[in-house]
Amino acid sequence: MDLGEICMNYVVEGDPNSPALLLVPAQGESWWGYEHAIGLLKSEFQVFAIDLRGQGRSTWTPGRYNLGTWGADVERFIDLVVQRLAIVAGSSSGGLIAAHVAAYGRPGLVRGAILEDPPLFSSQAAPPYGPGMMQTLGPVFKLWAKWLGPQWSIGDWTGMVKAAPQELPAFLHPGSGFMMGDGDLEAGASATPVQHLKEYGPEWAQV
Q1: pTM metric for this prediction
Q2: How many whole angstroms separate alpha carbon 94 and alpha carbon 67?
Q3: Could you give the angle at the alpha carbon of 95 between the alpha carbons of 90 and 96, nearest 5°?
Q4: So what's the pLDDT on residue 91?
Q5: Are 54 and 203 in contact (CB under 8 A)?
Q6: What is the spatial distance between Cα 140 and Cα 189, in angstroms, rounded to a whole number?
Q7: How many C-beta atoms lie closer than 10 Å to residue 4's C-beta?
Q8: Best-predicted range by mean pLDDT (8-17, 26-35, 136-145)
Q9: What mean pLDDT value characterizes the chain?
Q10: Strand-by-strand arrangement of the 20-24 sheet
Q11: 73 Cβ partners below 8 Å, 6+ apart?
Q12: Which of 2, 17, 28, 44 has the smallest CB count inside 10 Å?
């Protein structure tokens, strides 16, 4: 769907007479991350799943990444495609965007919001308690930006995989490999990028 500034990837399943449910993916994910959920939900809802700008090749737009911009994209999508009140549901950073649309979107768009693990506090630069996003996953975001580059302009996957154990703090090694296609950095990452990173603009994470 051409939203004016981007063309947004999406899928839709279910009866148009059922309540509308709009699924907003997590950072680094795409609409296809919801495939199993769509199968479970389409008997009760007309389910829409989208890619945000920076996710999915046709939605890439260099720069202009902030909650207001993402929220405006979602509002235009509801206006042009859903065309009625929708329940917005988001996972992780998608939950943050769903919360933003529910709180600041114009009346007549959102009838409810479901937020799954939204990083409402950890996404702050200086959260009131606990570490912030940039203290935990921030080094991974910097690694992606350095080796893959804005919109994959550099795209040195092999160099990134080799550099990751030295460039990431030791506390991030166990379990961080899942972001590069394996369960543990010490076990080695995938030889080629995993699908969700092929469709992901690394600068998205810097916002």
Answers
A1: 0.83
A2: 10
A3: 150
A4: 87
A5: yes
A6: 14
A7: 9
A8: 8-17
A9: 85
A10: 10-13, 46-50, 20-24, 86-91, 110-116
A11: 3, 5, 6, 8, 52, 53
A12: 17
